[in-house]
Amino acid sequence: MEYIVAMNGGDGPNSYTRNSKLQEKSFNGTKSLLIRCIRDHLDIQKTCKVFRIADLGCSIGPNTFSCVKTIIQEVQLKFDTQFPEFTSLPEFQVFFNDTFSNDFNTLFSALPIDRLYMAAGVPGSFYGQLFPKGSMNFMHSSFSCHWISQVPKEVLIKDSRAWNKGRISYVRSSCEVKQAFAAQFMSDFKAFIGARSEELAPGGLIFISIPCKSNESELCILDSADVLGDAFIDMVKEGLVEEELFDSFNLPVYIPTPSELIKLVSSDEHLNILKVEESYVKVKLSSPEDFMFESSHLRAVMEGIIKRHFGPDILMDDLFHRYCNKLKEFSNQFKNYDKVGIVSVAVEQVIMQDELV
């Protein structure tokens, strides 16, 4: 994952910094649950000198800073309320994590001047261990865990029943293709939650928000992204993209149901689910402005993956112009697509019986 997934860097017109409004809406939609969980469940120790926070899949832009600011404000409030006799708060250390190819230069050049924390970058895949065991007080991840670590191998093999020829996701593909993506997501998320379980300090919390779909008939963010494949097909027919190269391209994304996510978190005996909440972000795909917004958003997210696979000479402006037109062509399919589902899960650590000494 760390070698293929990174949002567009910098702060130009196609950057993630300027095209991450959907993720901003997602965090705003889950903020109230985040605050309630800190107030009701975070166990702050009087002896805490350094409070450590990790934002996993931070990317670049203002969203990660807004999230961290909210967490710190609530922890400060809880500390003041719980220990009013103390005149000094713990120091805050924030770890911004993303893949090695993330634009950390842009991220750190945009750090708020008035921040109340010391910042550090932690490049690497969050599907493995990132921090020392028992070291983190609060770990947060928003709109990140739907990225899987790799495209399932069987969807790329020509004689496999799961070969995903002519498609870039599992949305309009066979059951075998979807099952392959689901299996990869389950393997990855078990690794993710297992690593976090090891890293969480006693009394700490994990808060995860991820795009979801409640049932098979519900549309999700991947349905609109899948239409990009139709733009690619036209470019293949015109000789602008090699067919074999297109057939080997798949988006490394899986959108789970809430029940899938809950089952995976519950499978870790060291963790206990405190809260689960579904929310929705309002979206529209009905006007030229909506199509342009969606195209700009998807380009900021996917351009790096596309260039890595097809090479730097691919006609990116042409591709996403075609994508805009395809969204218009498919607009009837999206006439009821007015929201993006999100599931948020708050988790605490379970102290095992053999650890009680």
UniProtKB/TrEMBL annotation:
<dbReference type="InterPro" id="IPR029063">
    <property type="entry name" value="SAM-dependent_MTases_sf"/>
</dbReference>
<keyword id="KW-0489">Methyltransferase</keyword>
<keyword id="KW-0808">Transferase</keyword>
<dbReference type="GO" id="GO:0032259">
    <property type="term" value="P:methylation"/>
</dbReference>
<keyword id="KW-0479">Metal-binding</keyword>
<keyword id="KW-0460">Magnesium</keyword>
<dbReference type="InterPro" id="IPR005299">
    <property type="entry name" value="MeTrfase_7"/>
</dbReference>
<protein>
    <submittedName>
        <fullName>Uncharacterized protein</fullName>
    </submittedName>
</protein>
<dbReference type="InterPro" id="IPR042086">
    <property type="entry name" value="MeTrfase_capping"/>
</dbReference>
<comment type="similarity">
    <text>Belongs to the methyltransferase superfamily. Type-7 methyltransferase family.</text>
</comment>
<dbReference type="Pfam" id="PF03492">
    <property type="entry name" value="Methyltransf_7"/>
</dbReference>
<dbReference type="GO" id="GO:0008168">
    <property type="term" value="F:methyltransferase activity"/>
</dbReference>
<dbReference type="GO" id="GO:0046872">
    <property type="term" value="F:metal ion binding"/>
</dbReference>
